[in-house]
Structures are given as C-alpha cells and as structure tokens.
C-alpha cells in the first residue's frame, strides 16, 4: 500500500484548505526531522550514552536529564538556520532563543517541550516531544522579538503536534483542519500517514490522573474521581478503568486513539504553583490537538485555548479528552 509522506500530506492540505503556506510546510518538516533524530537517540538508550541526569537544573527547578538537553539542542539547531522562524522558546530554556543574525529570519514562533515524560527515560517507557507554532507579530521584522510576543492565547496557534517515541515512533499533527497521524518508517526514514482524521469518542470510562496527589485536589476533582471509583454502584452508573503513564504525550496519545479523560489539575499544594503542566509547551498544543479531534480541554472550568498567557513558563491545570466527560468535570466545578 502506497502511503502519503508527511510532505505529500502538507502539500495536499495547502491545495485543499490553504492552511500550509510553503514556510509552514518547511517549518513542520524541519521539526519532524528533528523529532526523527530525537527518536533515534532515544532508541539507542545506554548504547548511545543518553540515559541518566546532568548536574544542571532547568528554569522550573527540575533536574535535567541528558536527553532533555540533547533534544533541546537538536530542535534548536535544526530550526535555527532554515529561515522560517523569528524565535523559539522551550521548557528547558530560561528565556526565548532569537534566531542568530547570521541566519535569515521568518514570520513564525516555535515553542516546544523537547522531551516530555523525563521520569520515564531511564525506564524505557514511551516519551515524546510537544510543539506549537504561532505567528510572530506583524511589526516583528523591524525589531527584536520579546518574550511578550509569545504570550498569545492558544486559539492563535497556526499548528501544533507531538511525537511519541514508543514501540512505534509517531507524529500527530494539526494545522487547524482536523488531526493526522504519521508513523515513522525506520527503513525509509520517512513519516508516513497512517490515520487521516483522528477522532476522540465523546464518552469514555477510562480516566488518567496521578492518584498520589489526591490529598491536594480541589473538591470538584475529588468528587469526580470518587464517582469514577464508585463505578456501577455510584452516580455515574458504570465501572471505570484507570491508566497513568506519567508521560503526557503517551497518556494523550491513548486518548487520541481510544478516548478517555486526562487530568493534571491545579491543586492546593503549599507551593502555590497553579498545576504542574506548562501552558505554552504542553497545555496549549495538546488542547489544540484534542479540540481538533472533537474532544475538549479545560483548566478545570475555562477553555485552555482562551487563556491569555502571563508568562512563558506559566503552569496551568489540565483536564482534557472525551467531550462529555470533560464537560462533567466542568459542571462539578460550577456546582462547587
Ligand atoms: O510524575 P507526575 O507527577 O505523575 O507527572 C507526570 C507529568 O509530568 C510530565 O512528565 C511533565 O513533563 P516533563 O517531563 O516535560 O517535565 C508530564 O509528561 C506528565 O503528565
Ligand atoms: Mg512535559
Ligand atoms: Mg520536558
């Protein structure tokens, strides 16, 4: 069977929907090439010397793994010289990365979580890369890009995607016209289209949450999970299954494949941090993808894509997946 390559898919999208001008296509292809390289490094494991931690911490105060830093470098290097970007921002860097003056500059901003699921690297469980593309402001060509230029609501994203490095390497992508999935053909070295219109079922009986945080949850989250646990004898009238991989990409990918609800809610921990996941590198791109597949994504009550970011590394509560179940969580918040 002759499958479409990523390039063929992007060219077709431009022909039918005019959503992929040449600059965006080249940008996506460059990110996809970088993801292939990261996936290659991941698959080498101990043989490639990529496991384990470094002495450094990132801006979030988390110990960096060797692969966090390597993946960040691969993405920076691949995207610097192509001429499609004005600047980049990453979960692993304190501030934005402007395109050096020796390279041509483009009209887009790229944001990424270079390696998602860092705690799973050394135990050989699926991990991934998440990315988001925004327009640079119109007046940007005449001046330096600032952090504030990145602080656009997720609804402004031009494209978003993730790569998951698991038993297969897959790339899942939206350009605002549905969601497509590509599988890496390792012999050919190409991303080939394997699913054209990913759709998340509206209902589910599978939830994903880190239960060890239960004592910190806000009452509506506690109520919802209590109801799931009560199963067929409780108010929801059916039994629920639970999964928690602890790599957002892998948990979201399961939901993209068979439905479910994923929650990393904001909670009442004394740290005062509003949730664990990052708005710009994790929540926004995933919310865009999930909505494009017919699902929903909230911070608890509000639509994530409507949130006006205040800071590059802002954290946010995340509840996403099957529409009716996410809606139920919103209702519980309203009734609280
Ligand atoms: O270890 P916890 O608290 O369950 O957190 C797991 C969550 O943290 C993350 O690993 C955070 O991402 P990073 O690995 O990019 O920091 C998510 O992928 C995942 O959903
Ligand atoms: Mg992450
Ligand atoms: Mg990360």
Automatic annotation (TrEMBL):
Mg(2+) 1 binds at residues 91, 113, 115. Mg(2+) 2 binds at residues 113, 116, 282. GO terms for biological process: fructose 1,6-bisphosphate metabolic process; fructose 6-phosphate metabolic process; fructose metabolic process; gluconeogenesis; sucrose biosynthetic process. GO terms for cellular component: cytosol. Substrate binds at residues 116-119, 210, 276. Keywords: Carbohydrate metabolism, Cytoplasm, Hydrolase, Magnesium, Metal-binding. Its cofactor is Mg(2+). It catalyses: beta-D-fructose 1,6-bisphosphate + H2O = beta-D-fructose 6-phosphate + phosphate. Binds 2 magnesium ions per subunit. Its EC number is 3.1.3.11. The keyword Cytoplasm applies. It is found in: Cytoplasm. It holds the Pfam family FBPase. Coiled coil: none annotated. The keyword Transferase does not apply. Belongs to the FBPase class 1 family. This is Fructose-1,6-bisphosphatase class 1. The lineage of its organism: Bacteria, Pseudomonadati, Pseudomonadota, Betaproteobacteria, Burkholderiales. The gene is fbp.
């Amino acid at each position: 069977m002759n499958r479409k390559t990523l390039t063929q898919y992007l060219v077709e999208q431009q022909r039918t929907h005019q959503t992929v001008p040449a600059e965006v296509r080249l940008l996506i292809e460059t990110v996809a090439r970088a993801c292939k390289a990261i996936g290659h490094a991941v698959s080498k494991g101990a043989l490639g010397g990529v496991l384990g931690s470094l002495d450094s911490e990132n801006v979030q105060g988390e110990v960096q793994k060797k692969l966090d830093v390597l993946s960040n470098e691969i993405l920076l290097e691949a995207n610097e010289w192509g001429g499609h970007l004005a600047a980049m921002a990453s979960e692993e860097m304190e501030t934005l990365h402007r395109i050096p003056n020796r390279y041509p500059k483009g009209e887009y901003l790229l944001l990424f979580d270079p390696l998602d699921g860092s705690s799973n690297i050394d135990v050989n469980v699926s991990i991934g890369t998440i990315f988001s593309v925004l327009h640079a402001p119109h007046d940007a060509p005449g001046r330096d890009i600032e952090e504030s230029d990145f602080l656009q609501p997720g609804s402004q994203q031009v494209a978003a995607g993730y790569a998951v490095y698991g038993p297969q390497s897959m790339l899942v992508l939206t350009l605002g016209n549905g969601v497509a999935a590509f599988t890496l053909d390792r012999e050919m070295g190409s991303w080939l289209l394997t699913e054209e219109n990913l759709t998340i079922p509206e209902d589910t009986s599978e939830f994903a949450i880190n239960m060890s945080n239960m004592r910190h949850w806000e009452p509506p989250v506690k109520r919802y999970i209590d109801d799931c646990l009560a199963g067929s004898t409780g108010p929801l009238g059916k039994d629920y299954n639970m999964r928690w991989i602890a790599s957002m990409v892998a948990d979201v990918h399961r939901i993209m494949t068979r439905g479910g609800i994923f929650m990393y809610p904001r909670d009442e921990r004394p740290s005062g941090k509003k949730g664990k996941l990052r708005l710009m590198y994790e929540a926004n791109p995933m919310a865009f993808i999930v909505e494009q597949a017919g699902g929903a994504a909230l911070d608890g009550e509000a639509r994530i894509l409507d949130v006006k970011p205040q800071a590059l590394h802002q954290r946010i509560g995340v509840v996403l997946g099957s529409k009716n179940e996410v809606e139920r969580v919103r209702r519980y918040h309203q009734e609280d």
